[in-house]
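Example 3.2
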Amino acid sequence: MAVQGRSTTDASVGAIREFTGSLVQFVREKNAELSGRDLGWFVNLSQGNERAEDVFGANLPRLRRIKGKYDPRQVWRKGFVIEPLAE
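Structure, written as tokens:
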């Protein structure tokens, strides 16, 4: 499921983001309740204000180790920033 908000004025952008965020959270909680686990979401469907822990879930520690090995100085720092884990 993809949720997209649309705003016709700058004044309503915040309300749309709040609405879509609450709807996404509801769907995630319901999916977790029915499946027994958090199914997460696609990074390319994120709004950009989510926490990396929520987006990458159980994969984040492994991604942090990889980041520490290949990009310890964080040259690649766009989008979701993954803090490197020192080896």
